[in-house]
Amino acid sequence: MNNIQIKTYDIDYSFIIKNYLDKSLWHKEWTLLVYKNFVFTITLNRIDVYDESLCFSIKCKYVKDNQNCSTSMSIWHNLGNSNINVLKKQINGTIEDLIKSVEESFIKSTDEYYRAEQLENLEREKLEDYAKDFLDGEGVSNSEIRDAYIDYYVSKNSSFDYKNRVINANRYIMLFDLYLTFYQIKNDEVNIKKIETKYKARFNEESLEKIKKEIEENLEYIETKEYEEEMQEKLESI
Questions:
Q1: Ordered structural domains, the chain, with CATH
Q2: How much of the chain, in percent, has pLDDT values that exceed 90?
Q3: What does pTM read for this prediction?
């Protein structure tokens, strides 16, 4: 991360909270953190007079596929039952959640996630077809019975969960530098150690290459007569 410009900003939250009725603050945006193409900001979003609370919106702006993108989350600050330290913890927790959300959007754009999605969709389609053919053969025409049977059969026999495995394999790795920078700013040694351990172990037995190989093998297997017969044996009589 040498020569990479990192900017953090010290915001006077006490001033904002004391002057939340000042309209000049209503459309103001404060920058929290800048790292590479990632910019985290906070705005005063809503005032709840009944609950005596302020709603802040925290946003992450970033570049994905050469396009400017953003995602945001909200937090509430109670004027009577909270304090600045609690607010700062909420903000840091939300920044971490935003990093995870942005990372997940990057992971979902990968070829391996697309193939995992293809596999799970194909599995569902195959199981639904087997169940429908079985019900047709049994002469079951009642739509409620058919829907309940199909849903139960598909839920019970769906075995592929590669989308989550792809996400978990990439977690803390695809945006490793951003996580590390954020945790270093917080002096969060526990999470620094956790993500460094995960990064170093990224080529272990649950590596992305292993998952990708399994996905391709199962995309072939699911089209075989063997798979069809295996799933048809699991159809239960009505």
A1: 6-99 (3.10.450), 111-232 (no CATH)
A2: 89
A3: 0.87
